[in-house]
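Structure ticket #2291
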Amino acid sequence: ARYQPTTGGYFIYGKDKGGDEFYQIYRYDFATGDSTLLTDGKSRNTSPRFSNHGDRLVYGSTRRTGNDVDLWLVEPMNPKSDHLLAELKGGGWAAVDWSPDDHQILVTEEVSINETYLWLLDAQTGKMTLITPKGGADKVAYLNAAFSKDGKGLYVTTDKDSEFQRLAYLDLATRQHTFLTTHLKYDVDDFDLSHDGATLAFVTNENGMSVLHLLDTRTRKEIPAPKLPVGLISDLRWHNNNRDLAFDMESSRSNIDPYSLDVRTGKVERWASSETGGLNTGAWAEPQLIQWTSFDGMKITGFLYRPPARFSGKRPVVIAIHGGPESQ
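Resolution: structure written out below.
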């Protein structure tokens, strides 16, 4: 679900039937409690994104062919305004951001986990302009992308010229990349830019554990960030006050729950505690990060969950190999 960004008088949400994943997009009005269908009720509709002014919604839909994902535009308060904006080929298309002036839409074309292209879509004419060139010898993946607040560039995560997904600034005039996290030999999994454009919050995968970082966009240097509990962090989202940062976090003893961080004071606040079926999570084993050397000299890391102390002697072990080769 996503709130209308300027007044918050309603939110939009997606819903399917019986798990068929043919999502429809609805508008929920707080004043009446009514839900209004915004899509065709038949096709698969995905990745809705509000314009900055909150008057338009762009989303992907398969309604034209049943397979290709085209981009459609609708005014949520006027469902009859729904219309095809860009006719596309393939199923890997998604609108990910609007330019600050709402004239352009940033679009990703995902061919595979290792190959992604970025496009600019004119929100009036539907004209598509390729930003990242095709045809190179090496395939490049862009997993996250957003406009800078002046609209002159993009912040992205990409494995261009690197083994890892690095945070970078892509200048729209020159198409040049400036890499911002070359000192970190880890994937950047997620990021969000504050509303004033002054601070980037991003998360790295450091040997399987999420670490939160803060970056001053003017100096392009990191600023101190509090150390959070060991776990996985996702879904970063800045408050309009540019001070409070929301995120989800899970650990070996807790389900995914929402948290907030006051970046000025370092105060972390947990907003919910999900049900765990009455189990005593405090008794669950905390994993130990271990490291060993592979046959080819590469350092491999993993998490070791030891049995309770009451069990002595040799114990059987379960080895679970997870992930790869597309990610760190």
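Closing remark: The first strand starts at residue 2 and ends at 3.
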